[in-house]
Amino acid sequence: MPTNAGCDSSVLTEAKTLRILNIAYPFSPVNDSSVGGAEQILYQIDCALTEAGVTSIVIGCTGSEISGKLIATETFSGPIIHSVKIAAYGLYRQAIHQAIEEHHPDVIHFHGVDCTAYLPSTSIPLLITLHCPCSFYDCALFTLNWRNLFMHCVSSSQHATAPKNAGLLPPIQNGVPIPQHSPPYPKEEYALTVGRICPEKNVHVAVEAAKRADCSLLIAGAIFPYETHQAYFKEVVLPKLDHRRRFIGPVGGQLKWKLYSQARCTLIPSLAQETSSLVAMESMACGTPVIAFPSGALPEIIEHGQTGFLVHDVAGMATAIQSAIEIQPSTCRRIAAERFSLKEMTNQYLSLYRRLARNGTGCGMLQKGQTLCPSVHKESE
User: Fold this and answer.
1) What is the pLDDT of residues 323-373, one digit of tens each?
2) Measured on CA atoms in the order 171, 274, 45, 105, is the torsion positive or negative?
3) Which of 289, 329, 333 is nearest to 307 (CA)?
4) How many CA atoms lie within 13 A of 377 on its CB side?
5) Tens of pLDDT, residues 35-51
6) Which of 4, 198, 225, 319 is most buried, taking the most CB atoms under 10 A from its CB?
7) Each residue of 284-318: pLDDT tens digit?
């Protein structure tokens, strides 16, 4: 697996004394095979912090595998329904309180779209990375005026969609590991999709486009235990699969990079306003062009005709699959290395942690017992 994580020594000199508490989304493990972008970024941040000698603590569900100290909470089986969320949020609030008491973190960094349900009452600087579209978050989040609460987006296009009164910090663009050498895998005649299987990811369109292009397709991803996600796979995606268009489940580590490197192209037919796309960045880093709908930040990432194609429908995607051979793998790798550096991303986070730890405290602004969203917390008791 490619790795170019780590941080510049100039960034680390002061940062080594930091204690950073990262809070994962409660329902998805953080490890090398994580499907969600938020989990992948948290995994890389934790690796970089540990490598730098910074104290890294992560609260995540059982099954998480991190480099620093893990505080694991229960993994709930079955559908993620309201009662399951309430139970998970209660456990998270307890775990966060315990971590604050035992580890005295300098900064607490939240990655879950549901973080309003377990934000603590504390004067410690709180950082929220908005990995999802701003519309996915509780609207109360953007009306706060806490001096110790800071938020930022992961792309310029996402930042532009945020509420004007949100007072966001500048975006920190996601980064991915960049192979140091050309992948040793020959190209094969299949297209690839990677990511969550859910309605907004529109995976069935990739299947239809691959069929039109007479191209094989591998669908690598996970089906989360949400009723709508599982119904979408069973009722919409599964009936379209055949011996050449196959679902292979989640992949990680060396296998994921091998699949990217060997693919003819990577398809992203997403309907969601993508805030970023680690899939597009990783594919390009492996020398594989990306064919995508121009949703959210994807036009920022894909250079049409250079690292892939932006299309608007099934027919356009099918035509682009056939044209993918025109894109040079070396161009994809070069542009990915220039624009999507993992080291640059981790350096920015470490610099931000240092600034927040030094200047970001709310000086006891919150009163004991005060919460962000009283209605949410009341339901969860």
Assistant:
1) 999 999 999 999 999 999 999 999 999 999 999 999 865 433 333 333 444
2) positive
3) 289
4) 15
5) 889 999 999 999 999 99
6) 198
7) 999 999 999 999 999 999 999 999 999 999 999 99
Tokens of 339: 């624009």
φ, ψ for residue 241, nearest 5 deg: -80, 155
Rounded to the nearest angstrom, the gap between the alpha carbon of residue 149 and the centroid of all alpha carbons in its chain is 21
Task: Please state at what angle helix 37-51 crosses helix 278-285, rounded to 10 degrees.
Answer: 60
Predicted confidence (pLDDT) at residue 230 exceeds the cutoff of 50: yes
Residue of 178, 172, 144 whose CA lies nearest to 158: 172
How many CB atoms are located within 10 Å of the residue 2 CB?
18
Residue carrying structure tokens 């600087």: 125
β-strand pairing of 126-129 with 55-61: unpaired
User: What's the start-to-end Cα distance of the chain, in Å?
Assistant: 44
3-class SS string, the chain: CCCCCCCCHHHHHHHCCCEEEEECCCCCCCCCCCCCHHHHHHHHHHHHHHHCCCEEEEEEECCCCCCCEEEEECCCCCCCCHHHHHHHHHHHHHHHHHHHHHHCCCEEEECCCCHHHCCCCCCCCEEEECCCCHHHCCHHHHHCCCCCEEEECCCHHHHHHCCCCCCCECCCCCCECCCCCCCCCCCCCEEEEEEECCHHHCHHHHHHHHHHCCCEEEEEEECCCCHHHHHHHHHHHHHHCCCCEEEEECCCHHHHHHHHHHCCEEEECCCCCCCCCHHHHHHHHCCCCEEECCCCCHHHHCCECCCEEECCCHHHHHHHHHHHHHCCHHHHHHHHHHHCEHHHHHHHHHHHHHHHHHHCCCCCCCCCCCCCCHHHHHHHC
pTM of the model: 0.87
Q: Are 366 and 122 in contact (CB under 8 A)?
A: yes
Dump pLDDT digits (tens) for 87-99. 999 999 999 999 9
Q: How does 170-204 read in b/e, with b if 16+ C-beta sit within 10 Å?
A: ebbbbbbbbbeeebeeebeebbbbbbbbbbbbbbb
